[in-house]
Amino acid sequence: MTVKIGLIGCGGMGRAHIDRIVNELSGAEIVAAADVNLEAAQAVADSVGGDAKAYGTGAELIADPNVDAVLIATFGSVHTPDVIGAIEAGKYVLVEKPLATTAEDCQAIMEAEVRGGKKLVTVGFMRRFDKAYNEIKALVDGGEYGPVLMVHNRHRNPSVPESYTSRMLIDDTAIHEIDTMRWMTGEEIVKVRTDSVRKSTRAHAKLEEPIVLVFYTESGIRIDDEVNVNLEYGYSIECEVVMENAAARLGDQEGIYVRDVHGDRNRMCQDHNDRFHGAFNAEVQSWINAVAEDTHTGSSSWDGYAATAVVDAALASQEQGGTEVEVELIEKPDFYA
After folding, report:
1. Residues in domain Gfo/Idh/MocA-like oxidoreductase N-terminal (predicted)?
2. Could you tell me if 190 and 175 lie in one domain?
3. pLDDT one digit per residue (tens) for the chain, 337 residues
């Protein structure tokens, strides 16, 4: 079976997914594209050839009987109607993070999915498909080195545009660590604190960064996350998991080191598409395969909801000057057990 995919959102992330589906992955084709900018949708449709159609709304694309599954790469604030629309149409959907920008919208999505009686939603938390993260998770799950005590994370970018806000440090950037830590530890995050530090002179006037987030899980694991988005030297993701009898950390960048008379160095990645290219490919290929087999893969709507609930608590802490805030979670539906 060739899965016929419709793309909603033809910006940079959407085009990156088109490129991987057309040129690197197997088992799928792009049959439709939608964007509020119809010209952008038409450009994507033209680029993939065939009889691909262009639409001005996600609703039109979802209603197309030729579309088997939907890939959503629009802004998080507009995800909810299209995700629910895909659920009600009985179509599998891969939606880029966040699932939605409020816990209430995430709950509405879960309610629609539960009503339909079938897991159709995968949230694009691609780090779950990263080779190095999976190797660390295997150590954690294996228990050879004892339970996890603490985790140290760093999320660094070379720069961000003027449109990037202080809120986005949490709901656009740190949300990746939030999901990864839930997945890796197998526990919900129950408390969070957002600490401000000395402002970088490279940050634009309205951006207060870096920040450090401190999370606590159900069993008391302490997790910290440095979010530093104007560090100039490159895109760098670091994670060290400290267990009772060992510590495991991500290798640097996925590249090689060269040692010569000039020193010890490696190539720095410059953005998330560079660093997580393999993880993105594995995520989307896994989704395509699952759709072809009529089954669910990857993170669920509950995972999207839980991550957004932690984001809400972290934003509240940020607004309150760094007070510790408890994460408010509804009872997990049996549907997502």
Report:
1. 3-125
2. yes
3. 899 999 999 999 999 999 999 999 999 999 999 999 999 999 999 999 889 999 999 999 999 999 999 999 999 999 999 999 999 999 999 999 999 999 999 999 999 999 999 999 999 999 999 999 999 999 999 999 999 999 999 999 999 999 999 999 999 999 999 999 999 999 999 999 999 999 999 999 999 999 999 999 999 999 999 999 999 988 899 999 999 999 999 876 555 556 667 776 666 677 777 788 999 999 999 999 999 999 999 999 999 999 999 999 999 999 999 999 999 999 999 999 8
> Are both 180 and 260 inside the same structural domain?
yes
287: three-class secondary structure by DSSP: helix
Instruction: Give the structural domain span for 104.
Output: 3-124+278-300
Same domain? 156 vs 264: yes
Q: Lay out the sheet containing 247-249: strands in order across.
A: 247-249, 236-243, 148-156, 222-228, 211-217, 189-196, 325-326
Instruction: Classify 250 in phi/psi space as left (phi over 0), alpha (psi -120 to 50) or beta.
Output: beta
DSSP 82: H
Name residue 249's amino acid.
Answer: R
Whether residues 323 and 176 share a domain: the answer is yes
Same-domain check for residues 92 and 150 = no
With both helix axes pointing from N to C terminus, report the angle between 12-23 and 38-48 in degrees, rounded to the nearest 10. 10
Q: What is the DSSP letter of 26?
A: -
Q: Are residues 190 and 316 in the same domain?
A: yes
Supply the CATH number for residue 324's domain: 3.30.360.10
Q: How far are the Cα atoms of 87, 112, 267, 275 from residue 116, in angstroms, in the given order?
A: 7, 6, 47, 37
To 5 degrees, how large is the angle CA 304–CA 132–CA 308? 15
DSSP 245: S
Q: How many domains does the chain divide into?
A: 2
What CATH number corresponds to the domain at position 74? 3.40.50.720
